[in-house]
Amino acid sequence: MRWRLIVGLLCVALVVFAGTLSVAHGHEDGINHADCGLCATAHVSVQMAVSPDLLFVAQVRERFEPRTLEVPPKPLYRFALFTRPPPADAHLNS
C-alpha cells in the first residue's frame, strides 16, 4: 500500500516538473530549434497514417400523408350510486 503512495507522489512530481520546464524553457535568440528535444516535441502535430473512411449521407424525401384514425366511441360511464338520471343527450357529448 505504501508503494502506491510513493508511485503516485512521484507521478505528480514528474507532471509538475515537466510543466514547469516547458513553461520556463526558452532560447537566447528567441526562436525554436529543431535539435532541441523539448521544442521538437512541443510542436509535433499528429499525422494520420491511414485516412478515415468517408460516410456518404443521402437524404430521402417522401411525401407523408397522415391518415385519420377512427376513434371508437367512449362507453358511457355508469355509476351505480348516482343521485339523478343523466341528461337525455349524454351519449352525444363524449
Low-confidence stretches: none
**Shape descriptor:** elongated
Helical fraction: 25-40%
What proportion strand? under 5%
The pLDDT mean sits at 77
- Describe the largest sheet: none
Mind telling me the C-alpha Rg? 39 Å
What's the multimeric state?
single chain
* Strand tally: 0
- Spatial separation of the terminal alpha carbons: 74 Å
Give the helix/strand class. mainly alpha
Number of helices: 2
- Order of SSEs, N→C? HH
Structure description:
It is a single chain. This protein has 94 residues and is mainly α. It has a domain at 1-45. 31% of the residues lie in helices and 0% in strands. It contains two helices and no strands. The protein has helices spanning 2-24, 37-42. The radius of gyration is 39 Å and the shape is elongated.
Topology:
Elements lengths: L1 H23 L12 H6 L52
Keywords:
94 residues; mainly alpha; 0% strand
What can be said about this structure in brief?
This protein is mainly α and 94 residues long. Helices cover 31% and strands 0% of the residues.
